[in-house]
Amino acid sequence: MTIKEIKEMQGDLPVLDLDVKVVSVGKRKTGEGEFGEWSFQDMQVKDSSGEIWVKCQNKDDLSSLRAKYITLSCYKSDRRGWIGLTTLDDEYNDKITRKLKMTKTGLITIPEDQPELKEEETKEISNRGYWDEKLELDKQRHQQELGKQIRICRQNALTNAVAACFGKAVTITEILELADTFATWTFSGTNPMKDNKEKEMF
């Protein structure tokens, strides 16, 4: 089976086997939930017909597979049939992208006769590992800074709401609602005083 054929299949169908080369591997994300530990990791693969992303769930770290030739395949269950590797229609921002979904039961086979890596491929693997870590750190810093700005914005909005309600017969709930409105105006960049929206609330 080829990637081109997979993209023409319907969603949620088993893919028996696929011979590919690994283009890139994302950072492995882990956690623990109601049913125990979990992990997610994305892997981009290609063959002569195209490229596709594989969303891997509850697999060991796949970072060592970069630039390797591998075979992805299903597992034959006596009770459930072919499981572990299926087509996936991933929807994000109203856009559907065909991907593959590999669960814990999916199989990854690494042939022993791997071709030798070219020098540029070795450098690419090293660089990708560096940039994966850097992007993750930058993302964490951005989220921390955004969280800090949101807290400051809400605190300022509450202070302004209390000042605006001073001397008026309003409830705590109304003050909090006004603070939420002030915060929304701040994030949207609108000027509440220009439109007299503050006055309309009272």
Please tag this protein with its features.
202 residues; alpha+beta; OB fold (Dihydrolipoamide Acetyltransferase, E2P); 2 domains; eight-stranded mixed beta sheet; 4 helices; 10 strands; elongated; disordered C terminus
Explain the overall architecture:
It is a single chain. This protein has 202 residues and is α+β, with helices and mostly antiparallel strands. The protein has two domains: 3-114, Beta Barrel (OB fold (Dihydrolipoamide Acetyltransferase, E2P)), CATH 2.40.50; 139-200. It has four helices and ten strands; from the N terminus they run αββββββββββααα. The strands form two sheets. Strands 1, 2, 3, 4, 5, 8, 9 and 10 form an eight-stranded mixed sheet that branches. A two-stranded antiparallel ribbon has the order 6-7. A hairpin with a 2-residue loop joins strand 3 and strand 4 (50-57). Helix 2 (119-164) crosses helix 3 (172-188).
Helical coverage, percent range: 25-40%
Residue runs with pLDDT of under 50 for 5 or more positions:
196-202
- The SS-based structural class is alpha+beta
CATH level 1 class label of the largest domain: Mainly Beta
CATH architecture of the largest domain: Beta Barrel
Computed CA radius of gyration, to the nearest angstrom:
26 Å
Number of strands: 10
Number of helices: 4
Q: Which range does the strand content fall in?
A: 25-35%
Shape: elongated
Distance between the termini: 67 Å
Mean pLDDT equals 82
Strand and helix order: HEEEEEEEEEEHHH
Write out the CATH superfamily name of the largest domain: Nucleic acid-binding proteins
